[in-house]
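Renewal narrative, Specific Aim 1. Our central claim is that a sequence can be written position by position from structural information alone. The example that follows is taken directly from our test logs and has not been curated for this report. It begins with the structure tokens describing the chain, in the order in which they were read.
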């Protein structure tokens, strides 16, 4: 499996599209790197770029971008609302998949060393790549900003980790690191006052505000002479207030450095509370750069449950609720396909367009009816199973919102969420089954001239056949699991929709029995007869159970709709 890392460099140029394009062209000149997002800000005079790929090409692309930025940006002429100290101000590497933070930090040091050596540029390392504890925090490294760098860089405690310990008036200095996923998030306020925006920032950020001594009005200090602070409401959050002339409003600008401790929706809610206490109102917010899908889904679920509504709805609906609840489209349109990492990556993958899950009903039916062997019975079984559990999920949602059942909204909402999970897993299996079939065809197409080739071909066919058995077994298990939800909705759900749940049971049985046929036919091609016997016996037991559950549920449906 590929190792993937993300790189999110911040460049001190947000107004000249020619310079920004030259930097992104340098990134895209590296094969194997995907440019995901370019987010310039005029007021901050800063552009945040996001790209992803395997470690080596990402590091190469980052190097080229840092080199280009240093050639085109003159820090002696730069000013903007955001703290900064270099043409490439900060360049973090973030582990995405199949790579540890420790490994990512090694790549960060490789990049930093090369930048210092080949570009003769001062480089500091931060977060997981920090060479000493006092350099973990980016704000500490950047304290004093570009203007304070001439004196700071000469002090022994601030000698760069790589590159020369001398001031570079044109390029400044660069900070390279490895960190967890960070969300740059701005809250819009109905004020132009930076002071009042800062008051909200101090209320919410982890380090809070410095306390004043009531005796003299000066900052209070502890026994060690350190400023006394009142902590803010949110863990792992950095925040400042600023005025954005482009929009004519003040914002609270935040970095959420650990979204497990402080999720996006909580940062929004705490800012709303603070603003309200101080006579202001949050009018919306904006995300700078990209955001993981789960962050948006989590926010959507939170706001639906806050309304005492079922969160067992589709991904698309959860995202829509999150966007509207937090006003993420107030300043500019919020495009999920561009702003959500997983969607952005999928849009760039040519294979995504071929997935059946991306097709409409007519396209799927037409292709099933065509002379091509896929999609076949396995994919159709998975899809029928998805329809069956979708019907039960619909009943759960209708029950959650039924008048007079207000005290049961959460119970049915949780049922709907389970249904959505099963539905999504079965929909994925539609394409997984086709991929398993294609793997078998590819194995049969391997050369078979030499004894070695014959052996390799035989092994590949066996491995692909096992894969083609595992998918329908998975479909059977998922569809069988859905019977529990279906029965619950027939017995307890909205009485006006009891037959819909009943149809769900018919679909679930079809899914189980259809997948069973796939298991049996593929098991015939296995040379491992013990494994073939084991999986066919397991499949037969599940098929028998599905038949019994369907009969029980259908009988219950007839009982509930019988004329009295």
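The sequence written for that structure reads:
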């Amino acid at each position: 499996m590929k190792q993937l890392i993300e790189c999110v460099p911040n460049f001190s140029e947000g107004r000249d599209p020619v310079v920004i394009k030259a930097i992104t062209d340098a990134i895209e000149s590296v094969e194997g790197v995907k440019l995901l997002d370019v987010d310039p800000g005029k007021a901050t005079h800063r552009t945040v770029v996001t790209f992803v790929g395997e470690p080596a090409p990402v590091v190469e692309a980052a190097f080229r971008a840092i080199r280009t930025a240093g050639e085109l940006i003159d820090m002696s002429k730069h000013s903007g609302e955001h703290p900064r100290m270099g043409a490439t101000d900060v360049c973090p590497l973030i582990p995405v998949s199949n790579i540890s933070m420790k490994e990512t930090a090694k790549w960060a040091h490789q990049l930093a060393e090369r930048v210092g050596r080949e570009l003769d540029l001062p480089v500091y390392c931060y977060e997981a790549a920090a060479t000493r504890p006092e350099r973990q925090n980016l704000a500490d490294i950047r304290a004093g900003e570009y203007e304070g760098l001439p004196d700071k860089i000469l002090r022994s405690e601030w000698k760069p980790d790589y590159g020369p310990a001398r001031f570079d008036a044109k390029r400044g200095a660069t900070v390279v690191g490895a960190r967890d996923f960070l969300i740059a998030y701005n809250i819009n306020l109905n004020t132009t006052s930076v002071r009042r925006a800062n008051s909200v920032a101090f209320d919410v950020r982890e380090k809070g505000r410095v306390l004043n001594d009531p005796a003299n009005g000066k900052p209070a200090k502890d026994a060690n002479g350190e400023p006394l602070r009142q902590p803010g409401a949110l863990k792992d959050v950095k925040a400042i207030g600023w005025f954005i002339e482009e929009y004519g409003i003040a914002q609270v600008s935040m970095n959420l450095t650990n979204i497990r401790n402080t999720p996006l929706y909580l940062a929004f809610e705490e800012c709303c509370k603070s603003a309200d206490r101080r006579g202001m109102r949050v009018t919306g917010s904006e995300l700078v750069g990209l955001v993981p899908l789960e962050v948006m889904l989590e926010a959507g679920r939170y706001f639906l449950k806050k309304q005492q509504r079922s969160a067992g709805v589709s991904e698309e609906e959860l995202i829509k609720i999150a966007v509207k609840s937090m006003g993420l489209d107030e300043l500019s349109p919020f495009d999920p396909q561009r702003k959500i990492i997983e969607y952005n990556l999928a849009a760039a993958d040519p294979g995504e367009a071929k997935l059946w899950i991306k097709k409409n009903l007519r396209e799927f039916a037409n292709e099933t009816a065509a002379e091509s062997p896929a999609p076949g019975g396995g994919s159709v079984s998975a899809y029928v199973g998805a329809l069956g559990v979708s019907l039960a999920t619909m009943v759960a949602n209708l029950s959650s919102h039924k008048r007079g059942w207000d005290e049961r909204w959460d119970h049915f909402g949780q049922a709907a969420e389970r249904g959505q999970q099963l539905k999504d897993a079965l929909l994925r299996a539609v394409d997984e089954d086709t991929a398993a079939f294609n793997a078998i065809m590819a194995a049969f197409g391997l050369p078979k001239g030499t004894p070695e080739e014959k052996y390799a071909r035989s092994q590949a066919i066996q491995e692909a056949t096992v894969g083609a058995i595992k998918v329908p077994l998975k479909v059977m298990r998922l569809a069988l699991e859905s019977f529990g939800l279906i029965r619950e909705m027939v017995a307890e759900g909205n009485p006006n929709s009891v037959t819909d749940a009943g149809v769900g049971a018919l679909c679930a049985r079809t899914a189980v029995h259809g997948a069973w046929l796939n298991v049996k036919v593929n098991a015939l091609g296995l040379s491992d007869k013990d494994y073939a016997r084991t999986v066919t016996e397991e499949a037969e037991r599940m098929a028998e159970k599905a038949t019994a559950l369907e009969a029980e549920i259908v009988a219950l449906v007839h009982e509930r709709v019988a004329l009295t």
